[in-house]
Amino acid sequence: MQMKDELDILAEVRKYIATATPEQVAKDLEATGFEAYKGIGPEVCLDEDIGLIANVPFVTQQVWTTMLSPSAAQFKPFDFSHVSFSYVTCESLAGNYEEMPLAG
Amino acid sequence: MDPLPPLGPVFQDRGDVVGAAYHGTYLETGRQIESGGFCLPERQDESQRMGKGVYFWENSERAAKRWAKKWYGDKSGCVVRATIRLGRHLNMGISEHQEAFKELAGFLRKTQKTKIYESQVYNLMASRWIDSARRIHEWGDQQLLAPDFDEAWTKGPSDTMICVYMVSKIEAPCIVTS
Questions:
Q1: Res A95 pLDDT > 60
Q2: SS3 call for A46
Q3: What's the rounded Cα separation, in Å, for the pair B31 and B17?
Q4: Nearest-CA distance from A95 to chain B in Å?
Q5: Which residue from A36, A91, B111, B112 puts its CA 20 to 30 A from B21's CA?
Q6: Touching B: A residues 69-98, CB under 8 Å
Q7: Reported pTM
């Protein structure tokens, strides 16, 4: 049964992706306080091939489990020895390492 | 003979109500919330990972106490309990919702040619589709101590964090710990 507030979020997002122009997206982001919220939380880190949003350790030493892979068996943890206050090394499902700036 | 319980997965009711949600804040702010209700924060800080909203711990006063102590200190923090109507709800514990988030984040990153932070993705979702969002918060200190990730994942403490983007969805706030 369809609940009153139930939302097919995936379909809505895909509809948006299919129709929104980059200019429209920029406007939409600006309207949400895009600039003001830069640097809040971990940066989205995507593996271009697999589409994984990797886990990013936070600078306060909390581990933010951003997104898990569909299978826990595929998931690989970070090597925390690479964590510094400026950069974090994350490992993607493809086994590639990428250095990226920490948020904040 | 009692009937068998229903089989199959239990689906999240996205129109559900969370009867006991706990918010950690300054004591003075808690008093203002009690008398005038919640309002969206004007300032941002690094705790607002899920974007511009009011943050709660689902059914865990203890988690809110811990959070309030971390951010507001032993003496000036308090915990406010409230009821939340989730409305159109993004549940990051559901694979379909994770997929939606992931696809949108990837789309933003490609079209905007700039760094995209999680909070920005949540904010865009909140502006168009959702009233609230939910995710599991891992208490990182325990995870960092665990030598094996799988062990940390199964045994590490975690709580559910809810971010509410429409304050009209928050009802009956009252201070429960100060």
A1: no
A2: strand
A3: 24
A4: 16
A5: A36
A6: 70, 72, 75-77, 80
A7: 0.68
With H, G, I as helix, E, B as strand and everything else as coil, classify residue A9: helix
Extract the residue ranges of chain B whose pLDDT is less than 50.
1, 5-14, 141-155
CB contact under 8 A, A9 and B90: yes
Residue in chain B nearest A77 by alpha carbon: B149
Helix (H/G/I), strand (E/B), else coil: A69: coil
Which residue of A lies nearest to B50 if distances are taken between CA atoms? A41
Q: How far is A64 from chain B (nearest CA, A)?
A: 7
Q: Dig out the tokens for A21 from the structure.
A: 């122009």
Task: Look at A50 and B177; give whichever has higher pLDDT.
Answer: B177
Question: Residue B157 has what pLDDT?
Answer: 67
Kindly report the number of other CB atoms within 10 A of residue B5's CB atom: 5
Among B49, B101, B124, the residue with its CB nearest the CB of A32 is B124
Mean pLDDT of A50-60: 33
Is the pLDDT at A93 greater than 60? The verdict is no
Q: Does A7 touch chain B (CB under 8 A)?
A: yes
- Identify all chain A residues contacting B106, using CB atoms and an 8 Å cutoff: 44, 46, 51
Q: Is A60 in the B-facing interface, judged by CB distances under 8 Å?
A: yes
Q: What is the DSSP string of chain B?
A: -PPPPPPSPPPP-TT-EEEEEEEEEEHHHHHHHHHH-----SS--TT-TT-SSEEEEET-HHHHHHHHHHHHHHHHEEEEEEEEE--SEEETTSHHHHHHHHHHHHHHHHHH-S--BHHHHHHHHHHHT-SEEEEEEE-HHHHHH-SSHHHHHHHS-EEEEEEES-GGGEEEEEEEE-
Chain B residue numbers with beta carbons less than 8 Å from the beta carbon of A85 are none
Contact status, residue A83 vs residue A57, Cβ threshold 8 Å = yes
